[in-house]
Specification:
Blueprint: E1 2-4, E2 7-9, E3 18-24, E4 29-35, E5 41-43, E6 50-57, E7 62-69
Parallel strand pairs: 1-7
Antiparallel strand pairs: 2-5, 3-4, 3-6, 6-7
Length: 70
């Protein structure tokens, strides 16, 4: 798990736009949006402390990562 206080940073070599979803451990979506190559940070400072899953996808690829909000 990756700890964070207020920003998630996504690094991509792709020039495609991505959609993302942040899900709490109960399975509830708590934050969603989209990222472009130029916009690679997501503010999570409004989320309560806890463990979350960060899901990101474009038309062909998807990935998920667990992180801890401190």
């Amino acid at each position: 798990s990756n700890p964070t206080n207020n920003l998630l940073n996504n690094k991509s070599e792709s020039d495609l736009d991505f959609s993302y979803n942040i899900i709490d451990l109960s399975g509830k979506s708590v934050l969603a949006g989209s990222l472009t190559q130029m916009d690679q940070s997501i503010s999570v400072d409004q989320l309560p402390k806890g463990i979350y899953v960060f899901k990101i996808q474009n038309g062909k690829h998807s990935a998920h990562h667990k992180f801890v909000k401190l």
